[in-house]
Amino acid sequence: MQQRTLGKHGPQVSALGLGCMGMSGMYGAADRSESIATIHAALDAGIDLVDTGDFYGMGHNEMLIGDALVGRPRDSYRLSVKFGAQRGPAGDWLGYDARPAAVKTALAYTLQRLRTDYIDIYRPARLDPKVPIEETVGAIADLVKAGYVRQLGLSEVGANTIRRAHAVMPVADLQIEYSLISRGIETAVLPACRELGIGITAYGVLSRGLISGHWSRDQATDARDFRQHSPRFQGDNLAHNLGLVELLRELAEARGVSVAQLAIAWVLARGDDIVPLIGARSRTRLHEALGALDVTLGADDLAAIEQAIPPDAAAGERYNQQGMASLDSER
C-alpha cells in the first residue's frame, strides 16, 4: 500500500482511507455482515485510516467499527472521528455543539463505542457558530495532553478558521469534500493548508456515487437516503450531471479503467498531501477503488479530464440549503 503523510504535523497513512458513513443508514439500508467484511478487506489490503463520525447512525457506525476491529492490533490502524453534530430520535439535524464540555463528553462516548483508549485524529464536524474555534481546539488540546487524542483535525472550515485553529495547536489535516465536480477548496482553503503544512483528507471523491459510473436515476428510492434531498441528484441537475459522467466514461474507457478509478486517480494526482476517503459499502466497490492506485495520470490525461469536466461543470449545490448554511468552508 502506498503511503502519504498528512501535512507536516500529521501521521503517515495509507494513500486511500476508508470512510464508513454509508454503512450506517445515510445512504439507506446497509448490510451489517458485508460492512464488516468490507472493513476487514480494507485493512487486509493495507488501508490503515478508518474515518467515522459519532453521529453516523447515532453511534451505530462507531459500534460497527468497534466490532470489526476486535482482534486487530491497535497500532495497525488509525481512527479519524468527527463529533459535534446534534440529531434527534427521528434522525433530524439539530445543529452543532462544540463547547469544551461537549467535546470531552462526546469523546468519552466515542472511546466506549470504538472500544479503544485513544483516537488518532479528532475533529469537530462543522464550525459551531456559537463557540470560538479557539475554545473547541483548546478542549482537544487538553485531550491530547491527557492521552485520549493523538492529533487535531478540522472539517469543512474556511481559511480564516484554519489559521485561528492552527495558531492554538498544530492541525494534522482538514477533512473536506473534494472531487472533479467539487473544487471550491482550490481558491483559498487548499492554499492555506499548504502554506501551514496541513494535510487534506478528501471525502466525496465520487460525489456520493454520482460520478462513480454506477449511478442511475432510479437508485435513490430509500427514504433514508439523504441523496434524495441533494440538489445534484434532483431533476434537471441530475440529468446534466449524469451527462458529465458519460464524458468521464469515454475518457476512462480509452485508458482501460473504470469511471470511479479515473475520478479517484484524479484526486490522488492533485498532490501527495491529499488522501482520498473511499466510501465503499461493499468489497466489490472497495476493490474497484483500490485499482485507482495503479492508475497513473500524466499531464495530457489531466488536461483531457479537466477540459471535459471544468471546475464549475456540476449543476446544483453539494448539500441542500440547510447543509450549505452550516459550511464555514463556503463562506
Give structural notes.
- The protein is α/β, with parallel strands linked by helices and 331 residues long.
- It has a domain of 229 residues: TIM Barrel.
- 37% of the residues lie in helices and 17% in strands.
- The chain contains 11 helices and 12 strands.
- Strands 3-4-5-8-9-10-11-12 form an 8-stranded parallel barrel, surrounded by 5 helices.
- Strand 3, helix 1 and strand 4 form a beta-alpha-beta unit.
- Helix 3 crosses helix 4 and helix 4 packs parallel to helix 5.
- The radius of gyration is 19 Å and the shape is globular.
- The two termini are 37 Å apart.
- It comes from Dyella halodurans.
- Pfam families: Aldo_ket_red (PF00248).
CATH architecture of the domain at 3-7 and 12-207 and 269-296: Alpha-Beta Barrel
**Estimated structural class:** alpha/beta
The CATH superfamily of the domain at 3-7 and 12-207 and 269-296 turns out to be NADP-dependent oxidoreductase domain
Average of the residue pLDDT scores: 95
Give the overall form. Answer: globular
The H/E string reads EEEHEHEEEHEHEHEHEHHEHHH
CATH level 3 topology of the domain at 3-7 and 12-207 and 269-296: TIM Barrel
**Regarding quaternary structure, how should these chains be classified?**
single chain
Rg value: 19 Å
Portion of residues in beta strands equals 15-25%
β-strand number: 12
Portion of residues within helices: 25-40%
Largest sheet: 8 strands, parallel, barrel
Poorly predicted runs are none
Number of helices: 11
Q: How far do the termini sit from each other?
A: 37 Å
- What CATH first level of the domain at 3-7 and 12-207 and 269-296 would be assigned? Alpha Beta
Strand order of the largest sheet: 3-4-5-8-9-10-11-12
Protein name: Aldo/keto reductase
Domain NADP-dependent oxidoreductase: 16-308
Keywords: Oxidoreductase
